[in-house]
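Minutes, project check-in

Agenda point 3 was the complex the collaborators sent over. CS summarized: two entities, 584 residues total, and the question is how they sit relative to each other. Sequences were read into the notes so everyone works from the same version.
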Amino acid sequence: MVKNRQKKFSLGQYLDKNLGYIFLIPGILCLLLLVAFPVLVTIWQSMTNLTFLRKSNPKFVGLENFRYLFKQQETLVGLKNSIIWTVLSVSLQLFLGFLFAQLLHRITRGKGFFRTALIIPWTFPAIVMAYTWRWMLDPAYGIINQLLYNLGIIKQYTAWFSLKGSLFVAIIMNVWFGVPFMVMAIYAGFKTIPDEYYEVAKIEGTNYFQELKYVTIPCLKRIIGIILVLRTIWVFNNFDFIYLTTAGGPGYMSQTLPIYSYKMMWKNTHTARASAISVILLIFVAIFVVLYFKLFRVGGEADE
Amino acid sequence: MNRKKVFVNIPQLLYYTILLIGTVVAVFPLYWVLASSVRVYQELYTVPASFFPKSFTLRNYINVLTYTRFTQFFSNSIIVSVATTVITVAIGCMAAYGITRPKLRGKGLIGKAVLVAYMFPPVILIIPLFQIIAKIGLSNTTQGIILTYITFSFPFCTWMLTSYIKTIPTSIEESASIDGALNIQIFFKIIIPLIKPALATSAIFTFINAWNEFLYSFVIATSDTVRTLPAGLYALMTAELMDWGMNLGWISMMLIPSTVVFSLISKNIVGGLTAGAVKG
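CS then shared the predicted structure for the full assembly.
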C-alpha cells in the first residue's frame, strides 16, 4: 500500500519530503521583503541627499548626513534624552517589578486578586494610556493636580507634559505601564525556585540580602537578563509614549531619537537625514541583539 | 513550610500594604477614565472633581457614535486586525514547523533571524516601508497597513510557536511516519491539534497588538475610510474643538475590550515573550 503510493505520487512525495523548506518560504519572504530589504534601503538612503522634493536621482554623499547630524544640538539632546529615558525607565521598571513579584510570591492569600489588578496598566493600548495620563494631568481639570494641590505639594496647577522636565513625567508613565510585564515575568521565575533552597539558606542563618545574593539572584539571572535586554530595546525605540504626550516638547527638550527621526522625515521631509537617525538607532539595537545572543544563547538551535 | 511561619503578621502586613498601594496606583487610571466618561459636561469640567461621579450619563458614548466616525474606524480596525491575525498565524505556524521539525540545514540561522526581526523596532522600519508601500501603490489602503503589521506580528508569533513545538516529543510523529503518514498529514493531524493552545494565545496576542498599533496606521492611512481606531482617536484629539467628554467615551470603548481580553491571556503571553528563559 505504502510502496504503491510512493510510486504513484513521486512529485507529491518529493514535495512532502521537503515540506519543512516549503513551509519556510512565506516566512523567509516576509523577513526578506518586509524587514531585511527596508533596512538595506534605510542604510543606503542615509548616505544620499534624498528629500521629499528631491525624489529621483539621489546623490551618494557618504557620511555627510551623519556629520551634519552630530553638529546639531538637537541630535545631542535626542541622544541624551534617549539614554535617560531608557536607563531610568528600565531600571525603575525592573526594581518595582522585582519588588512586587517578590511580594506576590510571599503573601499567603489573594495572589490571584493582586496578579489581576497589577496587570491592568499593561492592558492599555499606547494611545489610550497617553490620553488617560493627559486627562489625569490636565493643567485645568486634572485629578493629579488636584491631589497634589490639596496635599500642598504644588502651589498651583501645573501643565506637566509642557514642563522643561516633561521627559521625567513621561518616564513615570512608562514605568507605570512597564511594571506589570516585569512583575509577571519575574513572578514566573520565582515559582521555579525550589523552596528547599530557601530552607537551606535559613538553616545557614542568612539575612535577606545574603539570601538575595546567593539564592534569588542566581536563580533568576537568566530570566531577568532576557527581559532586561528585550525591554531595553523596546523602550529605547518607543515612539508612541512620548509623541502622544509631550510630542518631544517644549521645543525638543523631551525629544528622543525615534521622535527626532519621525520629525526629520515627516516635518522636515528630509528622508536621508531621517534614515541616518534610523541608522544610529540601528547601531544601538545591533549592540543589544549581539549582547542578547552572547549572554543567553537563545533562539534557533542554541536553545536546546 | 518553615518559611511561612517565619513571616507571621508584621511582614505579611507590610507586604499587603505595599501591594495594596501598588494596586491602587495600577488600577486608579482605569477607574478614573471610566468614572469620568459617565459624567455630564458640567461635572466633567468642575474643579475640584469628586472621586465618585455625581451624575451618570451615556451622552459621551452616544456622541462618539453619532458625531465621529468611530463605527467606521472600528470596522477598519476589525478588518485589519483579523486579516493580520489570520495571515500571521498561518505563516507563523508553517515557519515554526520548518524551524523545529525536519532536519534542515540553516534552520538555526532562520530561528535567529526571526528573533532579530522580533527585536526590530517599528520606528526604524516605518520610513522605508512607507516608501515601498507608496511605490507599489498601497499607500492609504487597508492592505498597506496589514503588510506593515506583519513585520512585528510574524516574528513574535513564529518565535512563540517555535518554542512551544519544541516541547512536544517527536515520538508520536516518528511512529506516524513509520506507519506511512505523509509529513503534511503529520502537520495537520498531529502538530496542529497539539499546539492549539499556543495558536490561540498567539492569535489573540497578534489581534490585540494589531488593534492597539498606532504608528504604522497613523503614517500609512491618510483618510478616514482607512484609519484604524488609534489613528482616528489621534485625529479627534488634535481637532480644533477638542472635547474631553467625547475623548473619554472613545477611550473607554477602546479600553474595555482590550483590558478584558488581555487580562485573560496575560499569563500565557509572559511565557511566550520570555520563551526559553524559564525552563521546566
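Noted in discussion: Residues 74-303 of chain A form a domain with the MetI-like fold fold (CATH 1.10.3720.10).
Follow-up: revisit at the next meeting once the mutant set is ready.
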